[in-house]
Amino acid sequence: MSSATAPPLDRRLRLPSLPPVTQARAREQLQSLLAAYLRYRPLVQRGLTGGFVLYCIGTTYLSMTGRGVKAGRESSASTKKRGKGKSKKYRGSVNDPLFFARLKKLIRIVIPSLRSREASMLALHSAFLLARTALSLYVADLDGRIVSSLVTAQPALFLSNLSRWLAIAIPATYTNSMLEYLQSELGLAYRTRLTRHALGTYLDPPAHGTGGRLSEKDLGGTGDDGKGEQLFYKLANLDDRIKNADQYLTVDIQQFSNKLAEIYSNIAKPVLDVILYNYQLSRNVGAEGLVILTILVQASAGLLKAVTPPFGAYAAHEATLEGELRFTHSRLLESGEEVALYHGEEFEKNVIERGYFALVKHVNRVLRIRVWHGMAEEGIIKWLWGALGLGICAIPVFGGEVLGLAGGAGTLGTRTEGFVTNRRLLLSASDAFGRVMYSYKELAELAGYTSRVADLLDTMDDVKAGRYQKKLVSSSSVEGNAKMLEGRGQIIESDEIRFDNVPLISPNGDVLVKSMSFNVQPGKHLLVVGPNGCGKSSLFRILGGLWPVYGGTVYKPPAREFTYIPQRPYLCTGTLRDQLIYPHDAAMMRVRGVSDDDLMRILDVLEMGHMVEREGGWDAVREWRDALSGGDKQRIAMARLFYHRPKYAILDECTSAVTLEIEKVMYDHATSLGITLMTVSHRPSLWKYHSMVLQYDGQGGYVFTELDAEKRLALQEEKQDLEHRLLEVPKMRARLEELRAVKAERERQRSA
């Protein structure tokens, strides 16, 4: 119907049954109001459209920065004052007060600067997002033209529009492929940045470590300490917060990086689509309908958000259960021999099954929740919003003449073109808004992974700064020992080793020795003896810089001047050469002026030079912990000691699998190299190589004195002889009672 044949405005404005005079006045007032509105409608349209754009940008900004979250406005300090309940409730969710602060910290790591490669990739990704939206707008308009040409039976116009459709497919497919490629590349780049940052802290190497840098000390100069943090050890042994760091460093960082790369595309693109599609719709159907639609959609979206479960917390808990399950498997692999000898398969199977079924129970619970949540999502987003969209598309048809919209008048083809175009735009806008809603769920999952990764980085920072959180042993005085653990002693670099009133305390609060004082001069070999759990290993962990000093003063050389050789030596992955020079590599070995011939001479000292030919040369690669016997492993560890030639060597039962002849060669050669030995062993054959002894009594006491090997051996033999005689005492007493009984029986018979 054309405007020339349209009925008068007063006939189209139907009023309820009222007196004629009242109807006339009402009709005049409505006519004047509508005329005034239509006069200023272009200005109102611009205002409504601009307000809509600002509203979309503002709500997205508030949502992404957390300022729209009530809990996000509360400081962490006030949260701590109210207790840990609320923090625990929102932990791993978007409502967590710390989520956006943690996310901002992680983003600064993965995108260090605007000139970084990641920032450039993100900008290119944004450009392709804009291009795809522009192409979608063009396709929506072209779709309407194609349908219009079909309805009006114009074959030439149809073929022309169809050719445009095929032509636009080339840039559209390229844009979509590039978006997927750039998103994957962004996820990989984020993971690389974050992994390097985490590993740089977790495995902080000394200056002369495996990173390829040698200190002056390694080359014969003075140099600085070059001491590393040994954070990987402290994180596992001095702190309880991170149970399975491998899970955090691999799976959680990967999940966070991929989710962060996805969330940008899943939020930025839909928000941009919502703005552009609705802007175009406002031009076609009027901003009034757009505002009404936005109000209804936001109301239903608020309802949907209110009933959305904390999927982020669920994802974080699932990652925790996955890590615990992996840990049980890795522990079984590490202790496989002991479990096999105890025939503990059934017990370990039950442990693994409990972990697995706890994970399955949680996953099933989340899946059931997702079913009902998915029904609510589809019902609101697809069906309710679809019905509202059809109502918006009907505005140009039924009210276009009143509002002066295109599509309210004209031919059937024009109306069809307008309806199809608007419907396509509305479906795209609805889909974009739906993806914005879905992105809230993805943002919740991102919050879970953010919590996990941030916990790892925060805990490593705390441990690096000496702030540990360790559960105290139940047998200790928790309050008193907690105060002792808060104290810190002093470490002074010195050529000798001296302890002045230093307590030996395990990180879990077990006081082994309240105060210890002794000193070891260079060249004065020390023998450490005592029962298990008395503090022998604790002493060496302090000397190696693994445990903090909780009091007193420790004088010791830099950590690089110590080499520790346990009973079961560590053999790295690599060549036979690598086993002797660990943690150096071949290049560092040559820088130090050491050749393979020098390594061969070291092996010859230990009577194992034939091993090189037997194993296939210096460059042979094996799983050395399985290829070598226990004695060979211990001799390889001693060869490693002779290569590094430190000032001090801590030998912890490291000759238990070799003969006495090889043991003598080991100690004699180490002494000739000027290495001061600190040995933990109960073998009397080692006493003669030491001049001092530190003996624990297992009750918190100790004795530090000079060691006279001959006298101690004599006393040991006398002790063993007395113990043997004491064992014979009960037998002699029993025999004496038998003889007395026989004598008494004979005397009784004589008297009878």
Task: List the keywords.
alpha/beta, ABC transporter transmembrane region fold, Rossmann fold, 4-stranded mixed beta sheet, 25 helices, 12 strands, elongated, disordered N terminus
Commentary on this structure:
One of its GO terms (biological process) is very long-chain fatty acid catabolic process. This protein is of the alpha/beta class. The chain has three domains: 9-167 and 181-203 and 245-463, ABC transporter transmembrane region fold; 483-568 and 647-707, 3-Layer(aba) Sandwich (Rossmann fold); 572-627, no CATH class. It is built from 25 helices and twelve strands. Strands 6-9-10-4-11-12 form a six-stranded mixed β-sheet, sandwiched between helices. Strands 1-5-2-3 form a four-stranded mixed β-sheet, with helices on both faces. The longest helix has 53 residues, at 412-464. It is elongated, with a radius of gyration of 40 Å. The N and C termini lie far apart (151 Å).
Binned strand content? 5-15%
CATH superfamily of the largest domain: ABC transporter type 1, transmembrane domain
The N- and C-terminal alpha carbons lie at a distance of 151 Å
- State the helical fraction: 55-70%
- Helix count, per DSSP? 25
Label the CATH architecture of the largest domain.
Up-down Bundle
Radius of gyration: 40 Å
Number of domains: 3
Mean pLDDT: 76
Largest sheet: 6 strands, mixed
Please provide the count of β strands.
12
- Strand arrangement within the widest β-sheet reads 6-9-10-4-11-12
- Backbone structural class: alpha/beta
Shape: elongated
At the fold tier of CATH, the topology name of the largest domain is ABC transporter transmembrane region fold
CATH class of the largest domain: Mainly Alpha
Extract low-pLDDT stretches. Answer: 1-10, 64-87, 207-228
